[in-house]
Amino acid sequence: MRSAPPRVEDLVARARAVIPGGVNSGNRVLPWPFAIVDARGAYLTDADGRRYLDYHAAFGPIVLGHADPVVNDAVRHALGRVDLIGAGVTDLEVALAEALVDLVPSAERVLLTNSGSEATYAALRLSRAATGRQLIVKFQGAYHGWHDAVAMNVITPRERVGQTDRLSGGMSDEVIERTLVLPFNDVERLTATFLDHGGQIAAVIVEIIQHNVGCMIPTKPFLEAARRLTEEHGSVLIFDEVITGFRHGLGGYQAMVGVTPDLTTLGKAMANGYPIAALVGRVALMDRFGPDGDVFFAGTFNGHAVGTSASLATIDRLRDGDVHRRTARLAGIAADGLAGIAAELGIPMTVGRFGSVFTPYFYDGPVTTYVDLLANDTALDVWFRRSMCEAGIFMIPTAMKRNHVSAAHTDEDIARTLETARDVLRTAPSKGG
Ligand code: PMP
Predict the structure, then answer these.
(1) Is 207 in the pocket of ligand 1 (CB under 6 A)?
(2) C-alpha angle with apex 116: 112 to 118, nearest 5 degrees?
């Protein structure tokens, strides 16, 4: 914020002295000092006592609300008797794997990791082993984690669309060259790519709703083409449901759309913010990780009682569908409300929304493929978010990042958000700023 009060400033200065950039994940950098000391329900409180209504949800995991008492109790209870063993298996790991097999259509076997990146890494390694091939297909706008095969072409500037847009220095050229980046929702390009390279493609990895660029919904023909082409050419189809799994439904988006991949990655909302993720999939593939298989999978902290107990409790809370129905209703009110306010004020806006997730884009028009998004007025988008933050409504000030409604948000919270948005948008600079 413009005149950040001293305790926040002090913490951020100390952070910057010992942590590169002062944050523990690249995308957490904000253009003003930000340090949180309390997060409960739908609200964050910074080190100076300033409260924010939170739509960021830590990039998505917080589906029930921060520090959900039921999940926290389950974790405390589990930790009273078990933590991490590192040999054999715990009852919590078994119960969670059984729950995932029960809930997720593609899940016949389950492996637990600590992050989505580890899950997508393992999925790609398994795909290469199973096919004896090296090429990976990903789509422009999707994020699948920080490792070299996928850390490219997420929010790509106009001039780099169609080229490799790597997220980092130090990546292996050889690995990058083995990833083909295609436009999302483009059946023709996907079909042509299989015609040209079908025999070399190990896997197609799909961020099934492209939430890393807000809310880009896949067309059914696109998902069906991905399913059919991978089957015809002997490639592995991976749905990355790290964001969509649990947040939109316990079976993931695949259960809603009726297309079943070979492998699925899950994470984020699966434990309401506790660190755990999973790779699930068909037995014939997943068993290659077993003692008789040829694929290595390991991790000291995999299956820790913190994550497994939190996940079991989160699944329990989500089971009757009430949270999904309520949060979708509230996100719908927020999305429609924002679009209505923008229309009244003559501001071009399209609001992408699925379930509890909504993203205002500052342009009129479709949200079908990445090129559509190049019309977004980035300056106005960031200005809007920053102004909302200044007014106590936390929407991370990065263009096109999604907002999440949790079970802790109320009708009053949404109404206040819309009032604030109206006040903010009334003062919108005409061409961003
Ligand atoms: N896949 C998707 C779709 C994601 O959004 C993310 C994280 N934003 C990842 C994978 C990587 O997960 P993690 O940050 O837990 O490594």
Answers:
(1) yes
(2) 70
